[in-house]
Amino acid sequence: MRRKILSIMLILMLLTSIPVFGQAAELTMIQPRYTYIGTFDRDLTINASTGVADCYAKITANANYPVEVVCRFEVYWGGEWTTLRTWTDTGNMTAVISETYNAAHGFNYRIDVTAYVYDSNGNRLEVTGGITECYYPKN
Q1: What is the C-alpha separation between 9 and 11, in angstroms, rounded?
Q2: What's the pTM?
Q3: Which helix H or strand E contains 102, and what residues bound it?
Q4: Using an 8 Å Cβ cutoff, are 94 and 4 in contact?
């Protein structure tokens, strides 16, 4: 019996000393590097009890440049994305959209956001964008 216990302890010691190579690596977000864009953010949430969709998008420039952000609120219906509403904001260095929309149950929604930085002559210097999806389940 003593020999069996020693064998089990030896096996456990060996197992705990072996390095594990299949461990999950820490994930880091890869952030694009921009020349003129300082920050770009977007978010879509739908309140489960009220159905109010909160749409948010923001761009800031690294310096004193005109910026523009365009946010399209869309629903997936009939096999394609259909734009329900489009909001646009412009500004000097910062443009922000913070809008709401009453969503219907049982559909996928998304915001498709595009943001631009311009020079003083109106020439586009840089553009970025992204999509954020949200599902509003049936009751």
Answers
A1: 5
A2: 0.75
A3: strand 94-102
A4: no
| Cα Rg of the chain (Å, integer) | 25
C-alpha distances out from residue 17 to 10, 20, 24, 46, Å = 11, 9, 18, 48
Q: Given the DSSP bridges, would you call strands 80-92 and 124-136 parallel, antiparallel or unpaired?
A: unpaired
71-94 pLDDT, tens per residue? 999 999 999 999 999 999 999 999
58 neighbors 95 (Cβ within 8 angstroms): yes
Q: What are the residue ranges of helices labelled H in the chain? A: 2-17
| Token reading at 60 | 């800031």
Tell me the one-letter amino acid at 106. G
Order of strands, edge to edge, in the sheet holding 52-61?
A: 37-46, 52-61, 94-102
Alpha carbon 40 to chain centroid, angstroms: 10
Q: What percent of the chain clears pLDDT 90, i.e. is strictly above it?
A: 71
Tell me how far apart the alpha carbons of residues 37 and 31 are, in angstroms, rounded to a whole number.
Answer: 12
63-to-41, 60, 117, 124 alpha-carbon distances in Å: 17, 9, 10, 14
Query: What tokens does 18 get?
Result: 């072996």
